[in-house]
Amino acid sequence: MRSKEPLLDAAGFAALTNVSRETLARFEAYAGLLRRWSPAINLVGRDSLDDIWRRHFLDSAELLDYLPAGAETLVDLGSGAGFPGLVLAMLGVPRVTLIEADVRKATFLREAARITDSRVEIRTARIDAVPAQIFDVVSARACAPLDQLLSLSERFIGGKTRCLFLKGARVEEELTAARRDWTIAASCHRSRSDPRGVVLSLDQVAREPHR
Fold this sequence. Notes:
- This protein has 211 residues and is α/β, with parallel strands linked by helices.
- 35% of the residues lie in helices and 21% in strands.
- It is built from seven helices and seven strands; from the N terminus they run αααβαβαββαβαββ.
- Strands 3-2-1-4-5-7-6 form a seven-stranded mixed beta sheet, sandwiched between helices.
- The longest helix has 21 residues, at 21-41.
- The chain is globular and about 50 Å long.
């Protein structure tokens, strides 16, 4: 069971993230759109709609603390409702690409980007169908187990790329499995939004040569 932390509202989110009044208004518009669209196309879990500011906005925003210095490009895999990629774009990451294969969710992302005045590129495609391109940061939430996620990410990873993945209580098991095929410099950071959650930061990601 998820712990019974108090619901976070817009004012609490603003206090924790130090966003401007104008940016907060954009997030409020995003929250309203999410509540209207989610029941029809299953954007997020129904039980999380009452706690959007903590479960989705703060959960995504906390990745800002782990971006590498000077990061300008970010690709978000399986963006769904825009977490964490669209939130990071709203908070100032300059060039964000959102990859989402589901046409309905991609349509939502375009509308969310429009009403929040966010400049993002939205690719309606499977991750493995997007042409290879090196990004400063690869992000994902609830996309796939880590070993699969790294295989999907490989086409976007260069020597200085950092991967930032929002993970849960089984992160150590996933790291153990992934290290069978990957060299990884990993660090885990406790989530500010969920006591069970972890921000997994990976550097120097490389596939192990086949023996």
